[in-house]
Design a protein that fits this description.
The protein has 191 residues and is α+β, with helices and mostly antiparallel strands. It has two domains: 30 residues; 158 residues, no CATH class. The chain has four helices and ten strands; from the N terminus they run H-E-H-E-E-E-E-E-E-E-E-E-H-H. The strands form two sheets. Strands 1, 2, 3, 4, 5 and 6 form a six-stranded antiparallel sheet that branches. The chain has a four-stranded antiparallel sheet with strand order 7-8-9-10, with helices on one face. A hairpin with a 4-residue loop joins strand 7 and strand 8. The chain is globular.
């Protein structure tokens, strides 16, 4: 084998080794989700349309608490929060939604189900509690009841595989019992 041929084999082997060693690093980095800037107008419009399709009225996304989600620097979805009147609900409610590609999931929160005795004033803050699967969001809602105004922490799980979105009742209760009214306090309460 000539020196030139040997050098080509060494270079080719080195390039293959570099490519193989880079692959696991890229896979590791791609697992974490980050909040990255405001949710786009198309995502907000998609959520508002889906909420109306589900029978919600007076739908209004809270753009200051709606965010683009990125993974390894690439936009993968958006989380959108807002207010609406839920069908068959006694009080004005809040919602949270995930938009990924053409898939949207909207779920009611304050003013509905476990939180039906409260009126939604609006989403106050959104943050990540867990950036890996299952992705967990902490959302603090301003709410009121006939007797008091409160900040209600709600933990929501997002399954990136199925795009399912659900309230985590156990973690939400733990955060509420701990008196968590900030994302940082929610992180401590639901570890």
């Amino acid at each position: 084998m000539s020196v030139l041929t040997a050098a080509r084999h060494i270079c080719a082997a080195s390039l293959s080794a570099i490519a193989l060693s880079a692959a696991p690093v890229a896979a590791q980095a791609s697992g974490e989700v980050r909040l990255s800037g405001a949710a786009g107008t198309a995502a907000v419009a998609t959520v508002e349309a889906e909420a109306k399709r589900q029978g919600m009225t007076d739908v209004a996304a809270t753009t200051a608490q709606s965010f683009r989600l990125t993974e390894a620097g690439r936009a993968v979805a958006a989380i959108v929060t807002g207010k609406a009147t839920m069908p068959h609900a006694r009080y004005a409610g809040c919602f949270v939604a995930i938009v990924r590609d053409a898939n949207v999931r909207v779920i009611p929160t304050i003013g509905y189900g476990e939180y039906e005795a409260e009126t939604c004033v609006g989403p106050a803050s959104v943050g990540l509690l867990s950036a890996r699967d299952p992705v967990r969001f902490g959302i603090v809602f301003d709410a009121s009841s006939p007797n008091a105004e409160v900040q209600e922490p709600v933990v929501v799980n997002w399954d990136r595989t199925t795009n399912a979105l659900a309230i985590d009742d156990a973690r939400s209760t733990a955060a509420s019992r701990a008196g968590a009214t900030t994302i940082a306090a929610m992180r401590r309460a639901v570890r």
